[in-house]
């Protein structure tokens, strides 16, 4: 993506509540447990060939990858107040929240 | 997750209760003769442009869980390679069975 990262550090983002697994063969790196959840962008990590395309040997345009921070409690139902989970998420899985 | 939600692929195991608090396997050993043959096959197919490592990974991670854990490391590779060759029409499925 030549436009650079769409989201800046500190931006609030929602992970798309999307389940491509229901639609047929796919290879998805966005963990199931953060889909539909809201988090905070920590930093863009650079642009990388989209693994969803690479897995099928399709042309794989580069997509910006981010570190996104989520509150832990709603995900795991355990831990102490303030605990977080940080996940690498590609930009096409994120929307403004 | 709703009832419709598919079981996540085997690489998407974060938070799965059945894997919690199990010891990390330390079974790092050099490939045996079988493993070397499988890797040689993978390299030849890659050189001929018939498959990529990203496709190999997709094939490995789409193995159903029960079978995945019954297979050894290079057996998973071979299972994936065979599946990819069937998928691409290079090998007839009944030939493998």
Descriptive overview:
The complex is a heterodimer of chains A (97) and B (97). Chain A has 2 helices and 5 strands, in the order E-E-H-E-H-E-E. Chain A is mainly beta. Chain A has one domain (12-96): SH3 type barrels, CATH 2.30.30. Chain A has a 5-stranded antiparallel sheet. The mean pLDDT of chain A is 94. By secondary structure, chain B is an all-alpha fold. Chain B has a single domain (17-96), classed as Nitrile hydratase, beta subunit (Cyclin A, domain 1, Orthogonal Bundle), CATH 1.10.472.20. Chain B is globular, with a radius of gyration of 15 Å. Chain A binds chain B through residues 19, 21-22, 25, 27-29, 31-33, 51, 54-57, 75-76, and chain B through 1, 4-6, 8-9, 11-12, 14-15, 51-52, 54-55, 57-58, 61-62.
Shape by Cα distribution of chain A: globular
- Overall pLDDT level of chain A: 94
CATH topology of chain A, by name, is: SH3 type barrels
Largest beta sheet: strand ordering of chain A: 4-3-2-1-5
CATH class of chain A: Mainly Beta
- Determine the N-to-C terminus distance of chain B: 36 Å
SS content category of chain B: mainly alpha
**Based on DSSP secondary structure assignment, what is the total number of beta strands of chain A?**
5
Q: Which architecture of chain B per CATH?
A: Orthogonal Bundle
Radius of gyration of chain B from CA coordinates = 15 Å
Give the count of structural domains of chain A.
1
What characteristic shape of chain B results from the CA principal axes? globular
**So how many helices of chain A?**
2
Low-confidence stretches of chain B: none
Give the fraction of residues assigned to helices of chain B.
40-55%
Average of pLDDT of chain B = 88
Structural class, from secondary structure content of chain A? mainly beta
CATH C-level class of chain B is Mainly Alpha
